[in-house]
Specification:
Elements lengths: L10 H19 L4 H24 L6 H29 L3 H28 L5 E3 L3 H14 L4 H15 L4 E3 L3 H16 L7 H20 L1 E4 L2 E4 L7
Antiparallel strand pairs: 1-2, 3-4
Helix pairs in contact: 1-2, 1-3, 2-3, 2-5, 2-7, 3-4, 3-5, 3-6, 4-6, 5-6, 5-8, 7-8
Length: 238
């Protein structure tokens, strides 16, 4: 007897499942090796982009969008929240209040990420824009920040609360153009493979690009075509 998913799930779905597995690995080692956990979160983000490419060019399944959101809960909700809490415990484990605030922020981050993913799946999957900061972007900012050395608990916890609120905001974010998604993917990969190269150059670069997109894309990520100004778009799955 073969498993039920045989013949029903696509290659893109398999990559999505690997994204979830990477998220679990990041969660499981966050307390002992936060740097590796951050790299796994970024690797999950690469997988999240790859499954979208495969879905567009090879095809997906009816379960694809649901698998995608479920996987993102592990990799881009629980994993980054656990990463922040672990960093706070390592740098101020004797401060019960500080840890408590971090845990509350992590719980809020997970909750808002799940709400955002549910709303995305219900309303935004067929659009070229989405409301609220994407969970992938929020997790990349936190993970890249850790790899870049921004491990001050106050900064990480403040970012966690800020991103939790932005994920359920009504700010409109456009999809990345293919060329920009490729650039981000390359920088992601280099940040994972050689995070310490040239004084953490690639984590710094990734964090900078992610922050630019967070702040500027709702207002300035546009292009002109046929005499009209339109928001830049690109097909998506996640």
């Amino acid at each position: 007897m073969q498993p039920r998913f045989v013949g029903r799930l696509s290659l893109a779905d398999a990559v999505t499942v690997s994204n979830a597995a990477l998220g679990f690995l990041a969660i499981s080692i966050a307390t002992t090796n936060p740097g590796l956990a951050a790299r796994l979160v970024l690797l999950a983000a690469v997988a999240d982009g790859l499954d979208g490419v495969l879905a567009r060019h090879v095809g997906s399944s009816a379960a694809g969008q649901y698998l995608d959101s479920l996987a993102d809960v592990a990799s881009f909700a629980v994993a980054p929240a656990m990463l922040v809490v672990s960093m706070v415990r390592q740098t101020g484990s004797s401060d019960t209040l500080r840890v408590g605030v971090a845990v509350a922020g992590g719980a809020l981050f997970v909750g808002m990420a799940i709400v955002r993913l549910g709303l995305y799946t219900a309303y935004d999957t067929d659009d070229d824009v989405t409301e609220g900061v994407p969970t992938t972007l929020a997790s990349v900012i936190l993970a890249a920040g850790v790899l870049a050395g921004f491990t001050e608990p106050v900064v990480l916890v403040a970012l966690t609360y800020l991103l939790a609120g932005l994920m359920v905001s009504t700010i409109t974010y456009p999809d990345l153009l293919a060329r920009d998604a490729l650039i981000m993917g390359v920088v992601h990969s280099l940040a994972v493979l050689v995070p310490d190269f040239q004084g953490r150059a690639f984590p710094y670069a990734l964090l900078t690009l992610a922050l630019f997109y967070l702040v500027l894309s709702p207002h300035f990520y546009w292009r002109t075509t046929t005499g009209k100004t339109v928001r830049a778009t690109e097909g998506k799955r996640s």
